[in-house]
Amino acid sequence: MKIAILSQDASLYSTRRLREAGEKQGHEMRVINYLRCYMNITSHKPGVMYQGKPLENLDAVIPRIGASRTFYGTAVVRQFEVMSVFSVNESQAISRSRDKLRCLQILARKGIGLPVTGFAHATQDIDGLIDIVGGAPLVIKLLEGTQGIGVVLAETEQAAKSVIEAFRGLDANILVQEFIKEAGGADLRCFVVGDKVVASMKRQGAEGEFRSNLHRGGQAEKIKLTPEERSTAIRSAKAMGLRVAGVDLLRSNHGPVVMEVNSSPGLEGIEKATGVDVAGKVIDFIAKNASSSKNRDRIQY
């Protein structure tokens, strides 16, 4: 098969591992910088051009779209979909997951456990917003933040009001969520491929840090999920329409709650923590589902 990895940087761990895993299984792998692609949008012969040449005869693409490049990246993925090229994650699902508010609303509609969350536009409604989540301490998040950036723990209501007013003064969209104290600064990353959790790890925040992101000094270890946690992760990915996803959970007193569903989950942390060939699992999934045009519309799990 001919598989393209849509990535800005061929040297990134995740990109390299996907390429290695695909080549190991005998596939022709190519890394394409999606920002350098340009499109011929026409009904009779739609196409994607790269470095002056058309990208033709691809069997599948693996989108590794950066959060700040979602608009153009998903446009490229959508163009491949117009060309009937199998995409591991479809453009609509990527866009859906990148909008944190929309993501939470979809999960809530499906009855999936979430932290109590509030959202408002006007700063005049701050008191009501804080009351929704049960008061301080509470977590304030920028909708556009990634890797723990733009996430603040406000330990008092006055601190919360100050942070909310500051963010809104910058015309930033924010979410306010209850603080799950019993999680102890740890979360669970569940890597979902198809209808299975193929690997899972516990990420523990650094001393004095409530955010567990590995980019912020957190530590990771392999962990066994409960049946409820496994089911929650799979249902969350399915609700978003993602075939490959990183689902982040917290262990709360009222069961697992979903913090985020990531459409381009990193491989380095989870492969090193668990020893699982996650990249190989992704390539296996592609081989089963993109091997012929017949089953491009009938995903196999």
From TrEMBL:
The keyword ATP-binding applies. Mg(2+) 1 binds at D248, E260. Mn(2+) 1 binds at D248, E260. Mg(2+) 2 binds at E260, N262. One of its GO terms (molecular function) is metal ion binding. Mn(2+) 2 binds at E260, N262. It comes from the Bacteria. It is an enzyme of class 6 (ligase). Binds 2 magnesium or manganese ions per subunit. Gene3D superfamilies: 3.40.50.20, ATP-grasp fold, A domain (3.30.1490.20), ATP-grasp fold, B domain (3.30.470.20). This is Probable alpha-L-glutamate ligase. It comes from Lusitaniella coriacea LEGE 07157.
